[in-house]
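Sorry to interrupt, but I need a hand with the structure work. Could you write out one complete protein record for me, on any chain you like? Just paste the record in under my message, thanks.

. . .
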Amino acid sequence: MASSAFEYSSPENHVEKRSAISPALRETMFNIPREEWASNPRMYGEPGHWLQIHKGLLTASATLPAWIEQFMQEEDPARMQAIAQQISGLGNQLVHHAHGHHHIEDHHFFPVFLRMFPQLEHPLELLDGDHKVLAEVLDDLEKATAAFPVSPEGSDREKRDAWLKGADILMPAAKRLDTLFIRHIGDEEEICIPVMLKA
């Protein structure tokens, strides 16, 4: 999908640098405003399902750092144990679901969209670039989640120290993913939902 006319790493395109889809890319996209999607009868099929998946990912990515923050303020070891289990489970679930969803998009939806509408080459390259960045971020989150001590040994003080050390590593990865998901998913919907409504 690479093209010399499109530079993903530029500030206007990179998912960690851009604040919106650039005007140049918008010129190649279908202009169906978000506020009109719900009234389109085609929304009740694949597009609606897609939005539900995205809503689930965004909810999970927002919940994870909120739970970590709550965990880091907790004093009771029994409560910390319960929250630690929730954090570990949600982190693993989020990584698994995100990777699976991106795989389906990369290998099914995006190639089909490109064949149907070649003018979408650069918007789809944008999303492809996002997925590469997100794959690295998800790998970081997976490693931090795996290293997070769900049931550390020792005294209550030693357990809390181990938990807080793990949370200090996990929090930046969770916050980074949430920030990137908000940008990426919003832009991906702006690019792809109108395609689904057209196709």
